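ok so i was messing around last nite and threw this chain in just to see what happens. nothing serious, just curious
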Amino acid sequence: MTQVLLSFGHGYSAQALARLLLPQGWRIIGTTRDPAKAAHLAETGIEPVIWGDDLSDAFSEATHLLDSAGPSEAGDPVLARYRAEITALAPGLDWAGYLSTTGVYGDHQGGWVDEETPLAPTTKRGRLRVAAEADWQSIPALPLHIFRLAGIYGPGRGPFEKVRQGTARRIVKPGQVFSRIHVEDIAQALAASIARPRPGAVYNLCDDDPAPPEDVIAHAAHLLGLPVPEAVPYDAADLSPMARSFYAESKRVSNRLLKEELGVTLRHPDYRSGLAALLAEGD
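result:
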C-alpha cells in the first residue's frame, strides 16, 4: 500500500521531509496559497493543491498528515477549515504531526527546559502556538505527534549572505542563549517518528549546543575569512517587533527524548557543524 502524506502549509521543513520520503515511494500532497510555488512543488515530485481548493480526494487517500501552518488569532487555519474532515479521518491515519515551537516554554533566563516543562509563553506567537497545540490534541483518536522546533536554519537560511554584504549584526544581550536546529535534522526527526509512531508524543527538535546569537555571527565571519561584525548592545539595537520578540526569551532546550526514544543522531549537533556544511554546499 502506498503511503500518502497530506502536508498542510508545505514549506521549508516539510519540503526537507519530502526529500527523504519521495525516494521511498511515498506520495506527498502539499498545500500552498501561491500558484507559482505550486508549480515549483510539482517539479520536485509533490502533488500541489492550492489552499481552498477541493481536498476530498486527498482526505480519502491520506495515511499520514502534517501541519506546518502557523496559527493566527483566529486559531490554526487547518483546523478552522478542515476540522470535520480531519476528525472523520483521524481513526484511519497512521500518523499525524504538528510543527510547533519551543517558544511555548517562555523565558527561563538561560535555564534548561524539556518536554515536561510547563508551558508559559511570554510572547503572542508562543501563546498562539499553545492554543493550536491544544486544539489539535482535542481531536479524538488522532495519532498526533507534536514537534517543538527551535530556531530553524539551513540552505538559504544561514547568516553568510548578510555577513558577506556587511549587514549582519552581532546583537549582544548578556545571558541570552538560543537553541537551533538544522532543517535536515528536522526532516530526519519527523521521518524517525513516522517509522516509530507514539501517538500523544511531544518532542523538542533542537541541536546539542544552545548558544548566544552573536557567537553564531562571529563564527560565520571566521569561516568566510571576513571581519567579525561589531557588537551592538541589545538596548541600542533598532529591532523590528518580531526580532525583539526573539530576545524576550532565553532558554536552553533539551533534545534527550529525541535521541533516546527515536534514536536520532543529529547530522549537525551544533551551529559550527551546520554552518560548515552550508558553506561547503555553496550557501
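not much to say yet. The chain has a mean pLDDT of 96.
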